[in-house]
């Protein structure tokens, strides 16, 4: 969330692949999360346009070690599991109040994170809608980690929702570091809000307190750069009519401060940009996005950088 004094805000010309493309909803047919997923999918197509497509991923059954050999699982068994997931997904759609039997449903065999990211890019999807578990340790371990792994692979924004995610969010908090990805996350978050919604841009500035005159001068200079940077971002957002935009600056650790503010504000959605310029950063996604996704008590929108 930090930006150096005098750094110009990065003009966000970046749009996710296929902004008018399909909304891709990742679903395995589990009834516990389907309602929130389908509601979030409907919200996304209203805001971004395009059709809704449901994609399930069935992991292939691993071979069984037998001494020095590996016994391969017959392909027919995995195909049967895939067909069963298709039935589960279609059933989940049919019993959900937010579901539509006309939606396109596809289930493929493969690694969930990689296949979802690959298919989203190939289909020019505007966003991937996924679930995050918050009810018990297994939900947090498997549901959230799969979503995080998808974010590591994806070039397309990921909207992660918990079962309590509202049909129409009214307040979104954006972690703004003035990068192109964070500005784009603010743009997308604004479009997902209700007509009378509120978008809060939160910048976390460093808490490197030091008694030296040089530090105090730098800190004062830093503070003077923020109002014009916020103004530049406001001009780029073009929020829907009725959506109000306000700005907040806090001090501290970026992830902890953002999460604390979002919890106090009781927001429906946290939006962040992710920066991945190296192999190590690609694995880590970015500590802010990772911690927000693992800890937030609301929906999370993560927008990858164009790099």
Automatic annotation (TrEMBL):
Matches recorded under Pfam families: Usp
UniProt-listed InterPro entries: Universal_stress_UspA, UspA
Domain UspA span(s) in chain numbering: 22-161, 171-304
Gene3D superfamilies assigned: 3.40.50.12370
Family statement drawn from the similarity comment of this UniProt entry: Belongs to the universal stress protein A family.
Official protein name in the record: Universal stress protein
Organism lineage string: Bacteria, Pseudomonadati, Gemmatimonadota, Gemmatimonadia, Gemmatimonadales
């Amino acid at each position: 969330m930090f930006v150096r004094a005098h750094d110009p805000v990065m003009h966000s010309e970046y749009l996710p692949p296929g902004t008018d493309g399909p909304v891709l909803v990742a679903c395995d047919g589990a009834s516990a999360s389907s309602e929130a997923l389908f509601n979030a999918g409907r919200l996304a197509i209203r805001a971004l346009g395009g059709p809704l497509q449901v994609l399930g991923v069935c992991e292939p059954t691993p071979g069984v070690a037998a001494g020095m050999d590996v016994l391969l699982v017959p392909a027919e068994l995995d195909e049967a599991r895939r067909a069963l997931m298709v039935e589960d997904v279609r059933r989940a759609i049919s019993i959900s109040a937010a579901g539509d039997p006309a939606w396109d449903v596809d289930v493929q065999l493969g690694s969930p994170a990689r296949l979802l990211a690959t298919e989203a890019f190939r289909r020019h999807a505007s966003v991937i809608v996924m679930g995050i578990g918050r009810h018990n340790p297994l939900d947090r371990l498997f549901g959230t980690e799969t979503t995080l792994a998808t974010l590591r692979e994806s070039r397309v924004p990921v909207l992660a929702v918990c079962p309590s995610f509202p049909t129409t969010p009214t307040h979104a908090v954006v972690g703004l570091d003035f990068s192109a990805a964070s500005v784009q996350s603010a743009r997308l978050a604004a479009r997902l809000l209700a007509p009378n919604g509120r978008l809060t841009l939160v910048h976390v500035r460093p808490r490197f307190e030091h008694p030296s005159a040089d530090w105090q001068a730098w800190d004062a200079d830093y503070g003077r750069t923020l109002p014009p940077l916020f103004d530049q971002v406001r001009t780029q957002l073009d929020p829907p009519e009725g959506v109000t935009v306000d700005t907040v600056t806090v001090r501290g650790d970026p992830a902890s401060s953002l999460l604390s503010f979002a919890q106090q504000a009781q927001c429906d959605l946290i939006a962040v940009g992710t920066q991945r310029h190296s192999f190590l950063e690609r694995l880590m996604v970015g500590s802010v996005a990772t911690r927000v996704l693992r800890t937030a008590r609301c929906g999370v929108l993560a927008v990858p950088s164009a790099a």
